[in-house]
């Protein structure tokens, strides 16, 4: 087989499990598979699912999540975030290539895992992908978040993002105040759709948590009951 990430050939004997249960073979070589660090469960933040260092936690959540809850504009906006893997150097590089090329096989590899996560944590929730701005969408040609929903959720295309500065250039304080100046817009159909519903946002990466909280705030303001998020990386 050829590895989905490094594209090197590797030898894979079909396991009994894959034969009996018709499960697909792991498409990553052992070296790449080893570098994917799964999140969630014991020792992870109950809000955002990252691994927590013992010194950086408070009330069972990581300090980042704790701080978000101290701010008037972001308090209670996001219920939980669940991510598949730790955003380490390996995944950072792999996702950068994926975002650049829009590799459909890579998208479907993660989409399958997200669909399992959806059934486990968010069954019944309305799924909304975090959109790119018009300009970035044109430059890239696809929205990586929408691709991650292929095969398991419908994209109603109700949310838009207006052009803004890049998150990473801002410091923490600026990012918190940024949730107040809303870069997202919901169309008429979207307002109808989200009212009274539980929503789960889909994105490739949860970095600072600013983006999902901006969307969450918008959705809660128009009557969404609860907003969570689900990403490939945290
Ligand atoms: Zn590999
Ligand atoms: Zn957290």
Number of strands: 8
By secondary-structure content and strand pairing, the structural class works out as alpha/beta
Provide mean pLDDT, rounded.
Answer: 89
Helix/strand order, N-terminal first = HHEEHEHHEHHEHEHEHE
C-alpha-based Rg, rounded: 18 Å
Name the overall outline. globular
How would you sum up the major sheet?
A: 4 strands, parallel
Bound small molecules, which ones?
Answer: zinc ion
Account of the protein in words:
The chain is α/β, with parallel strands linked by helices and 234 residues long. It has a single domain (31-233), classed as 3-Layer(aba) Sandwich (Rossmann fold), CATH 3.40.50. It has helices at residues 16-20, 30-33, 63-68, 89-101, 104-122, 134-140, 144-147, 172-178, 188-194, 210-221, and strands spanning 57-58, 61-62, 81-85, 126-129, 159-161, 184-186, 198-205, 226-233. The longest helix is centred in the middle third of the chain and has 19 residues, at 104-122. The two termini are 28 Å apart. One zinc ion is lined by residues 3, 5-6, 8, 28-29, 31-32.
Keywords:
binds zinc ion, globular, Rossmann fold, 10 helices, alpha/beta
Could you give a short description of this structure?
The protein is an alpha/beta fold. It has one domain (31-233): Rossmann fold.
Question: What order do the helices and strands come in, and which of them pair?
Answer:
Layout: H1 16-20, H2 30-33, E1 57-58, E2 61-62, H3 63-68, E3 81-85, H4 89-101, H5 104-122, E4 126-129, H6 134-140, H7 144-147, E5 159-161, H8 172-178, E6 184-186, H9 188-194, E7 198-205, H10 210-221, E8 226-233
Parallel strand pairs: 3-8, 4-7, 7-8
Antiparallel strand pairs: 1-2, 5-6
Bound molecules: zinc ion (ZN) (2 copies).
């Amino acid at each position: 087989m050829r590895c989905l990430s490094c594209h090197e050939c590797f030898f894979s004997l079909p396991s009994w499990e894959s034969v009996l249960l018709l499960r697909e073979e792991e498409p990553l070589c052992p070296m790449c598979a080893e570098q994917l660090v799964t999140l969630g469960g014991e020792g992870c933040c109950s809000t955002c699912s990252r691994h927590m260092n013992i010194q950086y936690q408070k009330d069972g959540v990581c300090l980042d999540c704790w701080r978000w809850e101290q701010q008037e504009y972001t308090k209670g906006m996001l219920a939980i975030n669940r991510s598949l893997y730790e955003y380490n150097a390996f995944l950072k590089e792999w996702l950068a290539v994926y975002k650049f090329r829009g590799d459909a096989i890579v998208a479907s590899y993660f989409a399958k895992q997200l669909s399992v996560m959806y059934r486990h944590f968010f069954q019944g929730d309305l799924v909304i992908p975090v959109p790119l701005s018009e300009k970035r969408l044109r430059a890239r040609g696809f929205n990586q978040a929408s691709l991650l929903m292929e095969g398991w959720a419908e994209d109603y295309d109700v949310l838009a993002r207006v052009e803004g500065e890049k998150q990473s250039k801002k410091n923490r304080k600026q990012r918190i105040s940024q949730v107040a100046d809303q870069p997202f817009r919901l169309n008429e159909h979207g307002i109808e759709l989200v009212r009274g519903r539980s929503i789960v946002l889909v994105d490739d990466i949860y970095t600072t948590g600013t983006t999902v909280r901006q969307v969450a705030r918008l959705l809660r303001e128009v009557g969404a009951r609860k907003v969570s998020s689900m990403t490939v990386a945290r």
